[in-house]
Design goal:
This protein has 503 residues and is α/β, with parallel strands linked by helices. The chain has three domains: 95 residues, Phosphorylase Kinase, domain 1 (2-Layer Sandwich); 188 residues, Orthogonal Bundle (Transferase(Phosphotransferase), domain 1), CATH 1.10.510; 138 residues, Alpha Horseshoe (Serine Threonine Protein Phosphatase 5, Tetratricopeptide repeat), CATH 1.25.40. It is 44% helix and 7% strand. The protein is built from 19 helices and eight strands. The strands form two sheets. A five-stranded mixed beta sheet has the order 1-5-6-3-2, with helices on both faces. It has a three-stranded mixed beta sheet with strand order 4-8-7, with helices on one face. 42% of the residues are buried. Keywords: ATP-binding, Brassinosteroid signaling pathway, Cell membrane, Kinase, Lipoprotein, Membrane, Myristate, Nucleotide-binding, Serine/threonine-protein kinase, Transferase. GO terms for molecular function: ATP binding; protein serine/threonine kinase activity.
C-alpha cells in the first residue's frame, strides 16, 4: 500500500499482536487499576492506511474538518475524519504532518509502530498511520468532547468543578505512568490542549504527544515561558521534563488560566493559595486539597530535574484526593450521557445512522451543520408576491437560529427556529431537524420527538427525520421503538441511494 510496508508488517495483524505479551499487561496494571485495553474493548488494531482513504475521509483535507488550532506555528494539522471502507464508519482524528517534518519514511513508520503498540483506557490510542511518497499522517481515536483547554479556559456553559479537575490530574498522571511502564517515557509538549474528553466525559491523553516532533527526537514545540529549564539550557527533553510539564497542567487546573510557572510561583510566595485559585469555582473547593495540589505542582516545577517527583509518586499522591468516584465524568462535565440504541441493523449504517445508533449528539449536530439545507429543495420556494416584510423577518429569524446552531448556542437556536416556524408560511424539514437535536442537547426528548415527527410530515421519506425519532425514542426509554425506527431509517436511506441521491 505505502512505501513503508516492506519493512513493517502492519497490515491486518492478529488480534493479539500489539507488541505486548500478557506479562507486559500484568506489569502495566498498578494499584489504581489502569491497564492495557485489549482490542476487543473497541480499540481497533494498528494498521497502515492509504492516502486515498484518508483524503476521502477528510473531504480532501477540507478546512471544515480541522479540529486543531490552525496557524503558522502549528503546521501539523489535525482533522476529524470519517472512515468509510469495510463498513468501518468510525470517526477518527488524522494528524497531517508538514512534508519537512519526517524526511525519513522508515523512521516515521517505525516511530508510529512503537506508539501504535500502546493500548490504554487513559490514552486516545493510535490506530494507524500513512506513509506514501512525501505524505506522513497518523490516525488516532477521535474523542468528541473537546479539550481541557476548551473546558477550562473557553467554557460556554459551566466551568469544570473541583472534583473533576482532580480526576483530570489523576487520569493524566495514570496515562503517563502507563507510558513509562511501556518504555515510552517521553511526551512532547504536554499541555491542556493534549488532554481530550471521550464520549463518556473521561479525560484521556492524546497519543500524538508520544511521537517525536521531528526526526532528531529533540524538538519541543512549546511556548518558552512553559518550557523546562533544561530545554532552555541545552534543547533536550527527558522524562523529568514531562514531570515539569505536568506541573504546568496542575497550575492550569488550579487557576483556570494558563499561568507561566514562574509567575504562579511568584504569585504564591508564601501568601494565600486563594490568590492563585480560579475565581469561577466560587470557593467550591477544599483549601486543603488545593494546597496539596499546589505543593505537587511546585515539586514538579523544581529547577533541577533530579528534584522532581516520579510519575508513580504523583499518582500515589492524587489517588486519595478523588472524592466523587461514584459520579460519572459526563455529569461533572455537564455533557449528555453516552448511550447506544441496541439494534441489529439491516444494512451498514451511514455516518448519520452510526451517530444516531451511538447516541452521539455532538456528531449528529456536526452532520446537520455540514449538510446545510440541501434536503429542503422545493419546500421553501416563494413567489414574488410572497416576498413580504413578514417573509424577510422570518428568514432573518432562521438566520439567527443558524448562527446560534453553528456556535452551539442551542437555546438561542431554538428561539430563532421557533420564530421561523411560528410564522407558518414556509415548511423546512431541516429547521425541524435542527431544532430537534437542539432540544435533545437541552435534555428535552419529548420536544425533540415532536420536531422529528414534524420533519417527517414535511418530508415523508427523509431518513434523517426517522433517525432523529430513533434517538428521541431511546432518550425516552422506548428502546424497542427506537431500534425499529432506526432500521426503518436505514431502509429509506438505502432506497434513496439506489435512486442516486444522498441523504
Amino acid at each position: 500500500m505505502g512505501c513503508c510496508q516492506s519493512f513493517l508488517n502492519l497490515k491486518k495483524p492478529a488480534a493479539d499482536s500489539h507488541g505486548q505479551d500478557n506479562s507486559q499487561d500484568e506489569k502495566s496494571h498498578h494499584q489504581n487499576g489502569v491497564e492495557s485495553a485489549p482490542a476487543d474493548e473497541g480499540v481497533p488494531s494498528f494498521i497502515e492506511f492509504s492516502f486515498a482513504d484518508l483524503k476521502a475521509a477528510t473531504n480532501n483535507f477540507s478546512s471544515d474538518y480541522i479540529v486543531s488550532e490552525s496557524s503558522d506555528k502549528t503546521p501539523n494539522l489535525v482533522y476529524k475524519a470519517r472512515l468509510q471502507k469495510e463498513n468501518n464508519q468510525r470517526w477518527v482524528a488524522v494528524k497531517k504532518f508538514s512534508k519537512a517534518a519526517w524526511p525519513d519514511h522508515k523512521q516515521f513508520a517505525e516511530e508510529a509502530s512503537g506508539v501504535g503498540k500502546l493500548r490504554n483506557k487513559r490514552l486516545a490510542n493510535l490506530i494507524g498511520y500513512c506513509c506514501e511518497g512525501d505524505e506522513r499522517l497518523l490516525v488516532a481515536e477521535y474523542l468528541p468532547n473537546s479539550t481541557l483547554a476548551k473546558h477550562l479556559f473557553h467554557w460556554e456553559k459551566q466551568t469544570i468543578e473541583w472534583a473533576m479537575r482532580l480526576r483530570v490530574a489523576l487520569y493524566i498522571a495514570e496515562a503517563l505512568e502507563y507510558c513509562n511502564q511501556a518504555e515510552r517515557p517521553l511526551y512532547h509538549d504536554l499541555n491542556a490542549d493534549r488532554v481530550l474528553f471521550d464520549e463518556n466525559g473521561d479525560p484521556r491523553l492524546s497519543c500524538f504527544g508520544l511521537m517525536k516532533n521531528s526526526m532528531d527526537g529533540k524538538s519541543y514545540s512549546t511556548n518558552l515561558a512553559y518550557a523546562p529549564p533544561e530545554y532552555l539550557r541545552d534543547g533536550t527533553v527527558t522524562p523529568e521534563s514531562v514531570i515539569y510539564s505536568f506541573g504546568t497542567v496542575l497550575l492550569d487546573l488550579l487557576s483556570g488560566k494558563h499561568v507561566p510557572p514562574n509567575q504562579a510561583l511568584d504569585m504564591i510566595g508564601g501568601k494565600n493559595i486563594m490568590l492563585l485559585m480560579d475565581s469561577h469555582l466560587e470557593g467550591k473547593f477544599s483549601t486543603e486539597e488545593a494546597t496539596l495540589v499546589f505543593e505537587l505542582a511546585s515539586q514538579c516545577l523544581q529547577y533541577e530535574p533530579k528534584d522532581r517527583p516520579t510519575i508513580r509518586e504523583l499518582v500515589a499522591a492524587l489517588v486519595p484526593l478523588q472524592n466523587k468516584s461514584d459520579v460519572p465524568s459526563y455529569k461533572m462535565l455537564g455533557i449528555p450521557k453516552h448511550e447506544e440504541i441496541a439494534l441489529q441493523p439491516q444494512q451498514p449504517l451511514s455516518a448519520m445512522g452510526d451517530a444516531c445508533a451511538r447516541m452521539d449528539l455532538t456528531a449528529i449536530h456536526q452532520l446537520l451543520l455540514m449538510s446545510h439545507y440541501k434536503d429542503d429543495d422545493g419546500s421553501c420556494e416563494l413567489s414574488f408576491q410572497e416576498w413580504t416584510q413578514q417573509i424577510r423577518d422570518m428568514l432573518e429569524a432562521r438566520k439567527r437560529g443558524d448562527l446560534a446552531f453553528r456556535d452551539k448556542d442551542f437555546r438561542g437556536a431554538i428561539d430563532g427556529y421557533t420564530t421561523f416556524i411560528d410564522v407558518g408560511n414556509i415548511l423546512s424539514p431541516t429547521v425541524y431537524a435542527r431544532r430537534s437535536i437542539c432540544y435533545m442537547l437541552c435534555d428535552k426528548p419529548d420536544a425533540a420527538l415532536r420536531d422529528a415527527m414534524q420533519a417527517q410530515l414535511v418530508h415523508p421519506e427523509w431518513a434523517i427525520a426517522f433517525y432523529l425519532q430513533a434517538v428521541a425514542l431511546a432518550k425516552l426509554g422506548m428502546h424497542k421503538d427506537a431500534a425499529d425506527m432506526l432500521n426503518e431509517a436505514t431502509t429509506l436511506e438505502k432506497k434513496r441511494h439506489r435512486g442516486g441521491r444522498g441523504y
